[in-house]
Amino acid sequence: MGSIKISCVIVDDEPMALNLVESYVEKTPFLVLKKKCSSAIDAMEFIKTESVDLLFLDIQMPDLTGIEFSKMLPKDTRVIFTTAFDQYALEGFKVEALDYLLKPFDYAEFLAAANKAHSWFKLVKGKQENIISEEKEFLFVKSGYKQLRIKLSDVLYFEGLKDYIKIWLKDNPKPILTLMSLKALEEELPETKFMRVHRSFIVSLKNIEVIERSQIIINNQRITVSEQYKPNFLAFVNKNSFKP
C-alpha cells in the first residue's frame, strides 16, 4: 500500500490561528489542505460537496461550536480539536475526536496529533483495500482427480446436494461436481456478486434474468427464494430497482 494522503480542512474564527495551522499542514507531507474556514457554517457548506478526511476544528466559535458541528459530520470525517480551553477535553473525546490540541501548540505537538490521524486512516484505508483485493475472480475446485479453475464470472449458480455441489456454468450444459459443503463455499464467495437464496442454492446476482413472485429464473432454471433468505434478497432487489 502506497503513502496515504489525508485531505483536511482548518476551521477557526481567529485569522492568526488559521494561518498558523495552515503553515503546519504545509510542512506535513501526508496532509493535503482543501480549505480554510473562519466558521463552522462555512465548513459545513464546503463538506456538503467535497469529501474531507480530517478537520482541525476550533471549539469555541460563534453561531455553532466545534463540538456541535462535529456531531453533524459524515461518519468517515474525523476531527482533531484545537482550543484555548482545556475544560472541553472530556467533551471532545466523547464525540470520538482523534486528538485534542491545547492552544498555543507548537509544530511538534501538531505533528504528534497528525501522526495519530495518519495511523488511524492507514488502518481504515488498508482494511478497505484488503476487502477490495480479496474479491476473488476464480476458485480452484477438486473434481475427480483434477483441480479445475472456475472463473466466477462464468458461474450461473451453485446447487448443493448433501456433501456435493453442482456448479452450473454459462455455455456448459453439464454441471461440474465437487466435494464441498454449500456453507463452506458461501464463506469463500464475494458477497457483492453471489447470494444464498435457499439452503440448496447460491446464485450469481448478475446472471438473474427474471424474478417472478418468490422465484428466480437463471438460464431457464427456476430457483425458489426460501423464507429464511427472502429479507436479504428483497433488500438487494429494492436497492437495484428503478424508482421513477
Shape: elongated
| CATH class term of the largest domain | Alpha Beta
Number of domains: 2
What oligomeric assembly is this protein in?
single chain
Known CATH architecture of the largest domain: 3-Layer(aba) Sandwich
Strand order of the main beta sheet, please?
Answer: 2-1-3-4-5
Nearest-integer average pLDDT: 85
* Gyration radius from CA atoms, angstroms: 26 Å
The biggest beta sheet reads: 5 strands, parallel
Q: Distance between the terminal alpha carbons, to the nearest Å?
A: 42 Å
SS class:
alpha/beta
Q: Are there runs of 5+ residues with pLDDT below 50, and where?
A: 129-134
CATH topology of the largest domain: Rossmann fold
Number of contiguous helices: 7
H/E topology pattern: EHEHEHEHEHEEEEEHEEEEEH
Q: Give the name of the CATH superfamily of the largest domain.
A: Response regulator
Account of the 3D structure:
- The structure is a single chain.
- The protein is α/β, with parallel strands linked by helices and 244 residues long.
- It has two domains: 128 residues, Rossmann fold; 102 residues, LytTr DNA-binding domain (OB fold (Dihydrolipoamide Acetyltransferase, E2P), Beta Barrel).
- It is 32% helix and 32% strand.
- The chain has a five-stranded parallel β-sheet with strand order 2-1-3-4-5.
- The protein is elongated and about 75 Å long.
Briefly characterize the structure:
This protein has 244 residues and is of the alpha/beta class. It has helices spanning 15-27, 40-49, 66-70, 89-94, 107-133, 182-188, 230-239, and strands at 6-11, 31-37, 54-58, 78-83, 99-102, 138-143, 146-151, 155-161, 164-169, 176-179, 194-198, 201-204, 210-212, 215-218, 221-224.
